[in-house]
């Protein structure tokens, strides 16, 4: 996923308002925590937000994931899905309805297995989700939520052009033992959990409180050869043995998000004063070692010299903020605010990059102003203008060096500008915006072998135009379209930034009545480069998807539902992404579109 060319780690993701991510490089393992059924909404804000928008990379936008609430009626809902690539999903959901005392709960569990769209790229997964809400008095609600996920997948790095040409676009692994692309050599075992307790309370006529105390954890145990193209063989134990790596990434985070709001009236103006903040402490243990795959991942050699990293990292994040909503004129709301972004990162490494040990800590901080003005021109037409500063501390890799005191990398800083407008009536809705992001000290990366190499790309300009619209033509039919033109260029060279498409578009038809809903949507992504050196150009591609849902039986709030989804109707098999280089020859690896697929799902609430 990308937003305006920003990749994972450069935009913000929250779950019910709680930011989460990997302290190493701020990326997200979203699919390792929850499944589609856990979510009620996905809210995408492409802009930088206001001062109260908390997270590690708000300058790249925010993806707000909202979990589902318990149903009003007591219901037991078994469900199942199946389809292409040997995919099977099964599970059940229990909604308690209103319990004595006014509370309610939902528990949802499921299991999934698939052979994978690519050869031998199989996966298994189990997930459980629970949420309980309890009113406390007339003005307070307590919510307790928890989820646990376990996954076992064949870790895949993509395929070379030669492999795609010889074996097809669905090539990933072989079933031949003793080769470096044998699927049983590429394993990833992942466990994750996420829990929080939230209190939402109207304290008085003027004051309200929203606070969430939370914890989440992620554990990833991966084994793989260092090459999957057959060009790298031989270890200290045998000339034909397969060299590889074992990598363990484990972290646990504890934090709190607190938001206080006070309504006020001043000199004839009404508004809200908002203040609060986010604090989180994350501990991360990271290990990467060279192994002999042929000898059941034996350390190579059996000393500390086998380890590329043997780290323990701590990251403390503190983000207090204050902002106001002011309405100086009818229809005009101005929201100024300030946020302070503070990080403390420490690293205690028994083995650090380049050998040797390291005990090091460093602080980063910045004051981030933001202001938004929103004006209702008419009841059906509004416009806004927005400015915000952004900030992100350097990745962990920048202090994983022999002497980090000699590292002069500055934090990434942005100035975000955006202006937009929205208009709608009973048949047509239209929106458009222009944006410009002045990105200083941008950190870029490229994958070479088993390592991700980070470097400072310097100053980058992001700018573009975005527009979308929906037209109701009657008979329960809507026409939908969106498009964007984007540029992301390094200021010193005027060359484009990797993985930033010059244009995107989507168009389709959406149908919905009380018993049937369906959509046919085609998405198109334009030209872009996969590598920061601009050596791997990627052609445009599109994908046409069809989905439909009908209710087989309706009894009160219980609706038996049948869904059918057809992905990639035109069976496009283009290369869509570049992953990196492997082997002594620095062979480039690529991902392709999965072929045409069909899936069916049924839910039978009882």
Short précis:
This protein is an all-beta fold and 606 residues long.
Mean pLDDT: 92
- Could you give a short account of the major beta sheet? 22 strands, antiparallel, barrel
Name of the level-1 CATH class: Mainly Beta
Structural class: mainly beta
CATH H-level name... which superfamily? TonB-dependent receptor, beta-barrel domain
Q: What fraction of residues sit in β-strands?
A: over 45%
Protein model, in words:
This protein is an all-beta fold and 606 residues long. The protein has a single domain, classed as Maltoporin, Chain A, CATH 2.40.170.20. Helix content is 1%, strand content 63%. It contains one helix and 31 strands. The protein has one helix at residues 161-167, and strands at 12-15, 18-19, 39-45, 62-67, 75-83, 87-95, 104-114, 123-136, 140-153, 187-202, 207-225, 243-266, 269-292, 298-299, 307-329, 332-351, 358-378, 381-392, 412-424, 428-448, 451-474, 477-490, 503-512, 516-525, 528-529, 537-538, 541-555, 558-567, 575-582, 587-592, 597-603. The chain has a 22-stranded antiparallel β-barrel. Strands 2-1-4-3 form a four-stranded mixed β-sheet, with no helix packed on it. Strands 25-26 form a two-stranded antiparallel ribbon.
């Amino acid at each position: 996923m990308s937003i305006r060319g920003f990749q994972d780690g450069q935009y913000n993701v929250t779950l019910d308002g709680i930011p989460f991510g990997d302290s190493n490089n701020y990326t997200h393992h979203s699919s390792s925590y929850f499944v589609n059924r856990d979510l009620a909404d996905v809210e995408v804000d492409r802009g930088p937000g206001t001062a109260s928008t908390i997270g590690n990379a708000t300058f790249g936008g925010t993806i707000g994931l909202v979990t589902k609430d318990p149903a009003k009626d007591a219901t037991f809902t078994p469900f199942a899905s199946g389809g292409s690539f040997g995919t099977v999903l099964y599970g059940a959901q229990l909604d308690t309805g209103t319990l004595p005392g006014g509370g309610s709960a939902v528990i949802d569990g499921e299991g999934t297995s698939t052979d994978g769209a690519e050869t031998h790229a199989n996966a298994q997964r189990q997930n459980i989700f629970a949420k309980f809400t309890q009113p406390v008095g007339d003005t307070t609600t307590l919510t307790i939520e928890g989820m646990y996920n376990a996954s076992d997948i064949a870790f895949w790095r993509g395929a070379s052009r030669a492999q795609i040409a010889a074996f097809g676009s669905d090539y990933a692994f072989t079933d031949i033992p003793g080769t470096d692309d044998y699927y049983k050599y590429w394993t990833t075992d992942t466990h994750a959990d996420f829990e929080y307790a939230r209190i939402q309370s109207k304290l008085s006529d003027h004051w309200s409180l929203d606070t969430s105390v939370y914890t989440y954890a992620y554990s990833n145990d991966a084994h793989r050869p260092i090459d999957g193209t057959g060009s790298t063989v031989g270890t200290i134990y045998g000339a034909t043995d397969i060299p590889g790596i074992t990598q363990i990434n484990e972290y646990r985070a504890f934090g709190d998000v607190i938001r206080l709001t006070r309504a006020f009236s001043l000199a004839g103006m009404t508004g809200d004063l908002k203040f609060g903040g986010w604090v989180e402490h994350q501990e991360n243990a990271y290990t990467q070692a060279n192994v002999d795959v042929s000898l059941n991942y034996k350390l190579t050699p059996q000393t500390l010299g086998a380890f590329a990293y043997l780290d323990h990292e701590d990251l403390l994040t503190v983000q207090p903020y204050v902002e106001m909503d002011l309405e100086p004129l009818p229809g005009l709301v101005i929201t100024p605010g300030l946020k302070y972004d503070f990080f403390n990162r420490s690293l205690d490494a028994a083995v650090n990059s380049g050998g040797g040990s390291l005990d090091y800590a460093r602080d980063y901080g910045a004051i981030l102003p933001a202001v938004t003005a929103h004006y209702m021109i008419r009841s059906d037409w509004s416009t806004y203008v927005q400015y915000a500063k952004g900030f992100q501390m350097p990745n962990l890799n920048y202090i994983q060096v022999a002497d980090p005191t000699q590292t002069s990398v500055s934090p990434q800083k942005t100035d975000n500008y955006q202006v937009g407008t929205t208009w709608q009536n009973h048949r047509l809705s239209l929106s458009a915006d222009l944006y410009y992001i002045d990105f200083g000290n941008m950190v870029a990366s490229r994958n070479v072998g088993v390592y991700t190499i980070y470097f400072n790309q310097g100053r980058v300009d992001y700018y573009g135009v975005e527009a979308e619209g929906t037209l109701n033509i009657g008979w329960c039919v809507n026409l939908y379209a969106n498009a964007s033109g984007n540029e992301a260029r390094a200021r010193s060279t005027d060359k484009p930034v990797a993985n930033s498409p010059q244009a995107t578009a989507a168009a389709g038809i959406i149908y919905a009545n009380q018993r049937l809903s369906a959509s046919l949507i085609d998405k198109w992504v334009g030209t872009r480069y996969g590598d920061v050196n601009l050596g791997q150009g990627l052609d445009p591609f599109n994908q046409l998807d069809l989905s439909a849902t009908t209710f087989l039986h309706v009894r009160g709030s219980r609706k038996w539902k049948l869904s059918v989804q057809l992905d990639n109707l035109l069976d496009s098999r283009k290369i869509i992404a570049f992953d990196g280089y492997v082997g002594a020859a620095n062979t480039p690896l690529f991902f392709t579109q999965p072929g045409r697929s069909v899936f069916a799902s049924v839910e039978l609430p009882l």
